[in-house]
Amino acid sequence: MRPFFKTWLTICLLMPLAAHATNREQRLPNVNGFTPKSHASAPSSKSSKNKTTTLSSKSHSKLVPPMASKESSNVLSRAVNVLGTPYRWGGSSPSKGFDCSGLVKYAFNDATFDLPRTSNAMASGHGEKVERKDLKPGDLIFFNIKSRRVNHVAIYLGNDRFIHAPRRGKAVSIDTLNKPYWQKHYVVAKRVLPKDQQQMRVVQR
């Protein structure tokens, strides 16, 4: 009687473990990596939320691709080459002088980039918004000086520096975002892409 009792007790103890192992095996994929739908467990709302957040952050980063290094280099080169050119309202050439948006138009070259003429128009709907911490050389940075609306634009050079045509009586020069004045009047930054890349993005959408 005692051996039978031991056998019965052993079976009772092992049955829950066997059942647990069976359920665990049913939840795991088979050798071919396929898990039957009847045994697939629904993802938790937390994991789904995390996946959605990850995907959205990845998709957001893809929405603002960096400008190609060659194009960025060309933009910065054209801007730096006209350092010292006098400011002139409405100017957009080295011979006639530059205002802030005229310098941007000249540096970005209308043949390669399609930009509006005024700083406010550039900031309103052109390009993709970029966080200040994500700025890259060639990005446009916008300011509101003595106004609630954007009325000044500059080209970011890197290391918190930018090039711009400041105002009457000044010339095209390099300044820094670290100055309290520019920090106070900073509004937004935008990244623009060449015409061919913009067209490709429209087709992909």
From TrEMBL:
Ranges annotated as biased composition (Low complexity): 35-58
GO molecular function: cysteine-type peptidase activity
Pfam families: NLPC_P60 (PF00877)
Stretches for region Disordered: 28-70
Signal peptide: 1-21
Domain NlpC/P60: 69-193
Entry keyword set: Hydrolase, Protease, Signal, Thiol protease
Cross-referenced Gene3D superfamilies: endopeptidase domain like (from Nostoc punctiforme)
PROSITE patterns on file: NLPC_P60
A Gene Ontology BP annotation from the UniProt entry: proteolysis
Family: Belongs to the peptidase C40 family.
Listed name of the protein: C40 family peptidase
Organism: Pseudomonas khorasanensis
